[in-house]
Amino acid sequence: MQPVSIISASDAEAKLASYQKFMSEYIVNAQNQKLLAVKEAELKAEKKFQDRLEQLLAASGAALPSSDAVETQPAAAAELSLFQKRNLKVAAAGEAGKSRWGSLEVKKATENAKSQPPVVVASSTVAESSLFEQRNARVVAAADAGKSRWG
Fold first, then answer.
1. Radius of gyration of the chain (CA)
2. Taking a C-beta distance cutoff of 8 angstroms, is the pair 125, 134 a contact?
3. pLDDT digits (tens, 9 = 90+) for 96-123
């Protein structure tokens, strides 16, 4: 049996630092490659469905709307936020006498529903970004608010 080789502390620290550097670079590069692959697949799928749509429209004789025409259409003037929709439902259930909420909550929801104007919800920017970009935006927003679990 061969004797176990003893490595000095400085050699072990150097190997550990080298390994940590390699792993950090490997993880970052793997994530970048994964991101590029996902974006490439999204573009490929979008092109595929755009080609199919063009074929179907060409076969039916309808013209494909230009992307400029779609972007210039005005968005809905105002859309209720999720909280405002909830307040309306709570107030309606309270008026009908079928609310599962207490009387104070029903009163508060009724006052909020009457006093707050509708909040415009920007749905077009969310639809244009990918799910990955939406998640990253939420992580960044949480980090800015000091509530991120990612450090």
1. 28
2. no
3. 888 788 888 888 888 887 777 655 555 5
